[in-house]
């Protein structure tokens, strides 16, 4: 019952995280283990040098493939029942497969299930496929959908002026679209790193030296067979390990996801601040309550929820990135419990993606508030005026504008009077006097609309790696 779950991942947020269950649950780990064991049996049967196995018929291969394709809750419960006796989760999977084959034409080869394998031969491949598939099938589409939504928001508000705030103080104006585009660009870059991540796998026995393999078949090319098997699962082969795959790639993946989380967290905090400043208004939903005592409240709860889940996700990833690559001597079991939480970290990141998307669906820009803010900050034009003064070699341009504007409220009339007294061409005076905070946005609109991703893809490099 969800109300009795300790973790909100499987309790309060269970419905939202349902797409991840097929990849990151205990059930999924069992299914992927079954897949690895069945594929290994088929791989050995296809190797002529392994003489204790015969080739399998098409029907027999279908039986083995069905073990994972048709793995259901009843099958998982049977594995758990066997584990209750064996007190070993991988051995329980082995016994389960042997039971299944006992009623088929493959019963004579059942003892070859888990042949020459150590538990981590199965586990490291199962986990690699689980995390790979969860990222590619569930997390990545949501991340890309969020980036697309940010692109849409950036384009829709490309020319909507915004009073920038550096150090929390009024600064040179920008546009709302350009500021959103910055985050879309940052997130896209981190997403690419995640998409290019290698998922490694090893298959080399109890201490990574093919000991039992070599005794059973000393003439067989175990290096080649191991590589073909791992790569056949869509993974990158790791040829040199201890009993366990070292998990360096999982640390790399964790750090990449942490960087994505950090950028998204930065965005959520900015959105929270923009809402508090009145730059965005939130759509009101009938029946919704913002406060148990203050009826007027419409809280930016989606961005706050995203912030919380991103923090939990990154904290978990940080621990796992430090922990997983460490194992005493040829192996210790501390990675076993740690690995089970990698999916939890992915789940919290995914939950944050959903919350951020929902938050974005509820906001709309308040242009009147943005313009009012800009109209009260004429001092931000000091940058433009002193820059034109310096263009014409006027001495002390910066210092003169500093004396006029620093820490002071300046009106349009104050600036016009200052400009009229300048020894610069009349055309430049007229141009400066036409400036308004809401029009002083530089190339922000163009930046918001620019497709930097396609430009980067079109870059050509020479052999030195320098951009040409």
Summarize the model shown.
The protein has helices at residues 21-24, 26-45, 58-69, 73-86, 89-101, 119-156, 176-195, 211-216, 222-232, 248-277, 301-323, 334-339, 342-361, 367-375, 382-391, 397-405, 412-420, 426-434, 444-449, 452-457; strands at 161-162, 165-166, 169-170, 174-175, 200-201, 236-237, 280-282, 363-365. With 468 residues, it is mainly alpha-helical.
Overview of the structural elements:
Helix content is 59%, strand content 4%. It is mostly helical and 468 residues long. A two-stranded antiparallel sheet has the order 1-4. The protein has a two-stranded antiparallel ribbon with strand order 2-3. Strands 5-6 form a two-stranded parallel sheet. The chain is elongated and about 100 Å long.
- Low-confidence residue ranges: 460-468
> What is the terminal separation in angstroms?
60 Å
Helix fraction by DSSP (H/I, runs of at least 4): 55-70%
Q: Tally the beta strands.
A: 8
The topology string of helices and strands comes to HHHHHHEEEEHEHHEHEHHHEHHHHHHH
> What would the principal axes of the Cα set say about the shape?
elongated
Total helical segments: 20
What topology does this entry show?
Elements: H1 21-24, H2 26-45, H3 58-69, H4 73-86, H5 89-101, H6 119-156, E1 161-162, E2 165-166, E3 169-170, E4 174-175, H7 176-195, E5 200-201, H8 211-216, H9 222-232, E6 236-237, H10 248-277, E7 280-282, H11 301-323, H12 334-339, H13 342-361, E8 363-365, H14 367-375, H15 382-391, H16 397-405, H17 412-420, H18 426-434, H19 444-449, H20 452-457
Parallel strand pairs: 5-6
Antiparallel strand pairs: 1-4, 2-3, 7-8
Helix pairs in contact: 2-3, 2-5, 2-6, 4-5, 6-7, 6-13, 7-10, 10-11, 10-13, 11-13, 15-16
